[in-house]
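quick one, 331 residues, struct below
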Amino acid sequence: MSRFSLSVLDLAPIGSGQTSTQTLKSTLELARLAERLGYTRFWLAEHHGMRGIASSSPEVLIAHVAAQTERIRVGSGGIMLPNHAPLRIAEAFHTLQALHPGRIDLGIGRAPGTDPATSRALRPFDGEQFPALMRELLSLSRGDFEEGHPLHGVEVVPGDVDLPPVWILGSSGASARFAGSLGLGYGFASHFSPTPPLPAILAYRDSFQPSDLFERPHVIVAVAVVCAESEEAADWLARSMDLSWVRMQRGEKGLFPTPEEATAYPYTPYERALVQERRRLVHFGTPAAVSAKIREIAHETGADEIMVSSMIHDPAARLRSYELLAGALID
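---
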């Protein structure tokens, strides 16, 4: 394989005509396939109140997937920290680390991963608190609050393990220097963000300070991919994302649509423009074409790792997309 590694980001999409039980079974099948094919990590996202996304509790899914696989690293892509008390996340990931030593990752984001009403149902959300919450999480895990601090003496249990490797995830570059200053990994969400990742990555590397979690900087770039035997087949599969994106922009909630539903939908000129803009973020086509684009992204960004997100309605076609890509990129 080339100098970057390849990993999977799964949102556990619940497709039209499918159930959440079927979706989560498909997630496990994908994780097992990714392990057999040589992918490095399998990460699960956190989304709430989205009818077409089953990954509302990534720590539960991580435990399930890790228990049903043997080697692949399993983690969050990511935990949306302002939705949670830092102590609770420290406890959950200490527990996962104890259950599956050396195989757990903790990716952390600052966005709510949901709509404002659902966010309020979780807890009052304030993204501006993210740096303080992040420092609190790390200090609770290490037990290094000084005497006199309100949290001095609070113990994270189990206490005979540490947090797994931690990445801060971003889509705009706002957290890049912060991640570097803490000596953490950094992940950029190019699978949905139109912001060029390189300035953030350079800022992260420039500010990086070695830590007990990372001796050197580690960059993950997430990309949206649909891979099939032909460009026409890949375009057909990618149409589900077109309609899903339009519905999301209108604030509509629903299951992930089929390509047939997306093809039959009467897009307005404005919606067509939205789809065209969104398609620029999706790398679809044959294995040769998609792998060439991924190598280009890795070269341009200097990423240590490319993490692939494939939102495809048909579970078999989704597995095949990852299989084709691995055949082109993994030795």
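Residues 5-229+284-329 form a domain with the TIM Barrel fold (CATH 3.20.20.30).
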